[in-house]
Amino acid sequence: MRLAENRNRVDPASLNPQLGSAANMRALTTIGLGIALMSCSASNQLSNQTNGGSAVENATVTKLSLTSDAFSDGQPIPTEYSCDGANKSPALRWGDPPDGTKSFALVIDDPDAPSGTFRHWGAYDIPASTRSIGTGQHVGTEVANDFGKFGYGGPCPPKGHGPHHYHFKLFALGVDRLNLESGAKVVDVETEAAKHAIAQGELIGTYERK
Q1: What are 126's strand-pairing partners?
Q2: Burial 82-109 (b: 16+ CB within 10 A, else e)
Q3: Distance CA 60, CA 62 (A)
Q4: pLDDT tens across the length of the chain (210 residues)
Q5: Partners of 172 in the β-ladder
Q6: Per-residue CA distances from 28 to 3, 22, 32, 40, 83 (Å)
Q7: Which of 38, 42, 150, 154 could form a Cys-Cys staple with 87, CB 3.0–4.6 A?
Q8: Would you say 173 and 193 are in contact if contact means Cβ atoms under 8 Å apart?
Q9: Which helix H or strand E contains 27, and what residues bound it?
Q10: What's the pTM value of the predicted model, to 2 decimals?
């Protein structure tokens, strides 16, 4: 930028006195605008480089396939997996995670709950070799859900509140264990897992009580 300014700096002696002060002033103004534009361009380039770096960092979390034999993505969750049925967790399976995966963490939440996001299941320190969870199976280290119980708590929205969306989120982690205390809750699992995630899969099911 300093070199650009030197190249565009005008020696007052080089101004043509025959043009008059108005013409000379226009010349100075034109050069000043050129320097300002160059400065703005350099500033934008720096900003783009900074934003680009952030985007690359965010892009390092790859997509992981997560499915269930009980329901398809975006479809209703059968009653047997809710508080109106056996209240057991549906079977889940997923594809191979990226190299460097050392464990998994799983959370389920309902952002449509009247009082804010309600969390139904949180488990972490799931072995990296795991590729599925059977129906009603306990896995990893489970924490208290928002019902106040450990393990899975099925969909149980208020009657007449319309369909709720249940987000099953699986994190492939670059660490063997999450640094969580014994009193951790589902929100703590998700917060800590997000810090170490190298891949993530999501499956959404709906449930409504009329």
Answers
A1: 104
A2: beeeebbbbbbebeebeeebbbbbbbbb
A3: 6
A4: 444 444 444 444 444 444 445 544 554 444 444 444 444 444 444 334 333 332 323 447 899 999 999 999 999 999 999 999 999 999 999 999 999 999 999 999 999 999 999 999 999 999 999 999 999 999 999 999 999 999 999 999 999 999 999 999 999 999 999 999 989 999 999 999 999 999 999 999 999 999
A5: 104, 199
A6: 18, 10, 6, 19, 78
A7: 154
A8: yes
A9: helix 20-58
A10: 0.72
Report the alpha-carbon distance of residue 155 to residue 150 in Å, rounded: 15
Shortest CA distance to 73 belongs to which of 202, 208, 209?
202
Distance CA 123, CA 141 (A): 5
Both structure tokens of 5: 């300014």
C-alpha pair distances (Å), 14 with each of 10, 20, 24, 25, 135: 7, 13, 10, 13, 86
| Rg value, the chain, Cα | 29
